[in-house]
Prior knowledge:
- The structure is a single chain.
- The protein has 17 helices and no strands.
- By secondary structure, the chain is mainly alpha-helical.
- Helix 4 (42-66) packs across helix 16 (368-383) and helix 6 runs antiparallel to helix 13.
Amino acid sequence: MIRAAAGRLRVAAGVFPGLAAMLGAGLLAGIAPAAGAAGTWLLAGLGLAFLTALCSALSTSDQSRRFAGIGGGYLYTRHQLGVLPGRMAGAAALTGRICAGAAVAGTFGVYVVPEQPVIAAVVVTVAATVLDAFGFRPPRGLIVAIVIAVLVAFALVVAVCFAIAPPPALPLPPDVAGVDDPTGLLVAAGLMFFAFLGFENVTSATEPQYSVRQSLVAIPVILLVTLVAGLALGGAALHQLGGARLALSPRPLYDAMVAADAASLAPVIAAAAGFATLLGLLLAVGSIRRTLGAMAEFSDVPPSLANVGPRGVSAPSAVLGGIGIAVAAALLNPPEAIGVGACLLLFYYAFTNASARLLMGTERVWPRRSACFGLGLSVLLGMNMSVKYLVVVLVVMAVGCVSGAISSRYARR
């Protein structure tokens, strides 16, 4: 009984690192472009994004037990599907995570320093990069405290928004962003997929955090908590702002609180957003560094990026990832960064799910059909994203293949 209780406590404590990577830009800023695409249908899109993320999380969880090492879906795809698909997956993962980091940094800027959001985004990126390069890892107690504080702040937003009746909604012409439009469901789902990114911090951790039995509970719990938080926040923001105002809002939760005549509580939201995004950005830099390290081991990027310093990390990889995030944050606002990042990572998870389908029955815990559904949903949502985002995906994959071939050739000399 004592061992069972200890196992349950371990799972409960292990849920928080996964939530720390999810309760950030996707919920703080991602609901605005999703509302612009589908209006109130964004809530249904959130459910579809949840299913896609769940299937992808199950695929990465199974494969992490089969292929040990850093790299996540890049490593699995290269082993299962071959060098060329591996390079395409790696390029999509690397660029997508850079854009995701830019979205997180930009969200920090618009919530915490709205007067100078770009400068704030660059400064906080530099801070997170320095911390990661020096091997800083936030202690478990700090992560738990931040996650609880963010969830309490989210609950406050929901309670206030639903407690105050909004003004009567005005009729909108059909061509205005934010009008209820079921045809935008798949676009909204693709954008809201961003809210679930970060599960690989648990499912593909370099050190196993869960037994197989514990993972059966931990993975669904992490995603379900994010789903419930997203539905509650999306519903609250739609209730107060309506689809059209929400679609135009750079910081939806703050504007929803102001609309509910609760501007005095805005500092609470800013503080929660600041802590959530700072922690999320630190995790994003680490994720980029690990992806670069895995690609360097196969010479798809310069092998020197795999060299680990005395602090246990590759400082050049961390710095390179931080520079990429800072540049992307300066060029893209949070909704644009969310769109590009989500589209790239949807195709990355398409490769990951495709490789998971090839696992033998004895190598998997979850059924093969979950990988099949994950592959289909990832491609479906990705192909319905904006054409400009799809062009970026094609360019990134092409460049990744060419640069990987060149790097590998020079590494063999």
